[in-house]
Write a sequence for this structure.
């Protein structure tokens, strides 16, 4: 699998686990469960991300959480070289990943230098951990067999 070797740092030093507020608990609850969650209207079935109080299609307040799945497609990405800020390892790559039609999440990518990553390329979610040992997702290209 295309993954960092043990001890290799993904996009800089190990991250501190963020303070989880009620506004983002849905995301971190999913991450803790090893899932990329997206909101789905319980009445009309429209999927949306980030979540909204009401459905943008039918106005319903009813929703469920769905798992986006492990695969995605690179909508865009950037490999940062400059400016170099303290606390990060350069280069590092961040992508916008389409996990379902029209549903995109922003996440770190591996390898850090962007090798093998391309727009429209297939990617798969993988997991590393933050400083607290909690899961932290990143995406990496699907390697052809
Ligand atoms: Zn709806």
């Amino acid at each position: 699998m295309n993954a960092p070797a043990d001890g290799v740092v993904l996009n800089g030093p190990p991250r501190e686990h963020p303070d989880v507020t009620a506004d983002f608990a849905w995301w971190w609850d999913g991450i803790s469960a090893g899932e990329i969650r997206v909101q789905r209207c319980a009445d009309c079935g429209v999927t949306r991300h980030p979540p909204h109080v009401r459905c943008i299609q039918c106005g319903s307040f009813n929703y469920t959480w769905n798992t986006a799945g492990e695969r995605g497609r690179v909508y865009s990405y950037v490999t940062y070289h400059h400016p170099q800020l303290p606390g990060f390892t350069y280069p590092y790559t961040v992508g916008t990943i389409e996990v379902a039609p029209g549903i995109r999440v922003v996440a770190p990518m591996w390898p850090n230098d962007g090798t093998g990553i391309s727009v429209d390329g297939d990617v798969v979610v993988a997991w590393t951990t933050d400083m607290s040992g909690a899961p932290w997702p990143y995406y990496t290209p699907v390697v052809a067999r």
